[in-house]
Amino acid sequence: MDFFNDSNFSFGETTAAEDGSLHYSAILPVIFGIVCFLGIMGNCIVIYTIMKKTKCRAKQTVPDIFILNLSFVDLLFLLGMPFLIHQLLGNGTWHFGASMCTVITALDSNSQIVSTYILTAMTLDRYLATVHPIRFNYIRRPCVAMLVIGLVWSMSLLTIIPVWLYAGLMPLSDGLVACALLLPDPVTDTYWFTLYQFFLAFAVPLVIICLVFFKILQHMFTSVAPLPPRSLRVRTKKVTRMAVAICLAFFICWAPYYILQLVHLGVQKPSVAFSYAYNIAISMGYTNSCINPFLYITLSETFKRQFLRAVCPVNRKIRVNPSTTEGGSVSVRMVPEGAQREPASEEMVPHNVDP
Fold first, then answer.
1. What is the DSSP string of 84-126?
2. Which residues, at least 6 apart from 85, have a Cβ–Cβ distance to it below 8 Å?
3. What is the pLDDT of residues 54-113, one digit of tens each?
4. What's the sign of the alpha-carbon dihedral 277, 279, 281, 283?
5. 33-55 confidence digits (pLDDT tens)
6. Closest CA to 201 of 23, 71, 340, 73
């Protein structure tokens, strides 16, 4: 995300940095600091909860893998916010060198694209789970999901090649430098790069996700095929509802940013109002990475239970078993309280079918 600068848009050289100094130096850093703190804490909780579940049960579901990787990407995205806050406090100046400028800019762009592609893959998984729960169950395996994640990262790294090539330091009028995308031909290249980013990171995934969810809804209202077990249907419905909420939140939060990027192509000298709107759009994009963990907690009873199991120590009790030794003695052993019986929930699905 080009926060302050690109090759033809530098907040350091607009009146926004002067007339809105209070806005930049006080309000936005506080808001971004809160978003950064809550987002990092929330995504760390999600990662810890899923990894703890894996350690205890030695099994991850396909939704677990997608949510784990989405949380990891959100965490990487939020870890770039301290540099953004530093830019805010310095009116767009950069003090961390050219190498860090390239790394942070590439990490920022890569996180945006990987998030979009993971959501697209998650949507396709929901399609298979809802429309073809038995037929394509052999595809919906953790190993296949990990291969998809690897493919997503590879595609994203290829997509951001222009960022690796052209991110660098741009001199400012006061002798300082800013971190910017220095395209060879600022006018023409900025136009094409903006469209390139818009379609690959937003428009195309949005169209795919909308079409897939439309097919899911169409199937749910018109299907007359034999239904899978009720427990599987309940679980699938809840996971699909959470996937819809995550995708909806993503596109609501990111739509203003990409729309303003397109509008900016026709704006030669951004006004203060446009600069404020641009900053609000950017803050909404970062907020999306902050709210995802709270969506998991709000919409998933299963995740709530997993979180409680992860953070609360397991209560143990003594169980006395008759011994099979000749003396007829008894053996005493400690077992977890929940080891004998799992609570009835939407997690109860057939062993050969992932939700």
1. HHHHHHTTT---SHHHHHHHHHHHHHHHHHHHHHHHHHHHHHH
2. 29, 32, 33, 36
3. 666 557 788 889 999 999 999 999 998 999 888 888 878 899 999 999 999 999 999 999
4. negative
5. 999 999 999 999 999 888 887 66
6. 73
Q: Is residue 23 part of a domain?
A: yes
Counting every residue, how long is the chain? 355
Contact (Cβ atoms closer than 8 angstroms) between residue 38 and residue 73: no
Q: Give the global pTM.
A: 0.77
Task: Report CA dihedral (247, 251, 254, 259) to the nearest 10 degrees.
Answer: 160
Question: Which one-letter amino acid corresponds to residue 338?
Answer: G
Is residue 51 assigned to a domain? yes
b/e string for 315-327 if b means 16 or more Cβ within 10 A?
Answer: eeeeeeeeeeeee
| Total domains, the chain | 1
Residue 284's CB: how many other CB atoms inside 10 A?
16
Query: Angle at Cα 249 formed by Cα 63 and Cα 157, nearest 5°?
Result: 65
Task: Write out the H or E segment, with its range, that includes residue 32.
Answer: helix 28-57
Look-up of token digits 């209202």: 221
Does residue 38 fall inside a structural domain?
A: yes
Residue ranges of E strands in 222-289: none
Would you say 107 and 179 are in contact if contact means Cβ atoms under 8 Å apart? no
Residue whose entry in the numeric block shows the structure tokens 């590439």: 106
Mapped onto helix, strand or coil, the DSSP state of residue 149 is helix
| CATH code for the domain in which residue 139 is found | 1.20.1070.10
- Report CA-CA distances (Å) from 200 to 77, 113, 154, 158: 18, 8, 14, 11
